[in-house]
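Fold this sequence, please.
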Amino acid sequence: MDETAATGDRDETVLTDDGVRLWATRTGGGAGEPVILCHGGPGLWDTLEEPAALLPDTPAYRWDQRGSGRSQRSGPYSTDRSVADLDAVRRHFGLERVTLLGHSWGARLALAYALDHPALVSGLIYVSGTGIDDDSTWHPAYKEAFHRKLGERRGRRECWEELRERGDGRTEAEDREYAILQWSVDFADRDRAREHAEAMATPWFGVNYTCNATIGAELRRPGATHGLRERCAALRVPVLIVDGEDDIRPRWSVDSLEGALPDVTRTMLAGAGHMPWTEDPEGFRTAVGAFLRGVSHRGDSR
């Protein structure tokens, strides 16, 4: 097992192959299929305590990606580096094979890991991702929906734009408010959207905008999706795609991935946005729990 430093009853430090310290934790129990959860961003921190708690009989491993949250703020930042860090988490906890649950950018990361290391992955749960086509195919529709939703409540769009203009000049409190306003559009229930966004921002660890910009630029570069369809078609790992029906990222963007995968199930949760476990916890629990039982059964049959 790699170097471990306890920071809480179940909190641990994972040491990567290039010496960067990552925060990680294990929750849940039982003999169920182990799951590593990959949070969104990039440049954010683990916000997946809630979905992990919906699976109490599942050993769940959560972590802050490099440069984010409780992990060491140190690059380099790239998809390949993130895949290597994810493998360090797997090895740290002594997991031979694992199911991955990735959310948003974390869904991309989990898919990239499965494509690079299919023998180490029992299953993939792809939550609120954006598929395998070029970002330019869906991002304009997302941007339009973002500004429309942000403008539904008086003054919110103006406040967000003012904070955006301040950039690096924002105070920590202003940076948190900027994130809350931005995240509030990701929930279908507009009356509780800010409440949900504030919960995501508590505790506040600060966004790593350098990480976000660096990996974002990598994902948008010409040819970034070249060969993905063919690689997905060859993936012999069961995949569950989970979408919130009211996610402002167009759900048709995921059709490209669904069409390429040979072993895929897709669940659409009505009345839910980008964090579907928050607005339809029972639907999320049912879909993911059934998938994990199926993966475990496959493992028992091998």
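The chain has two domains: 11-138+210-301, 139-208. The chain is about 40% helix and 15% strand.
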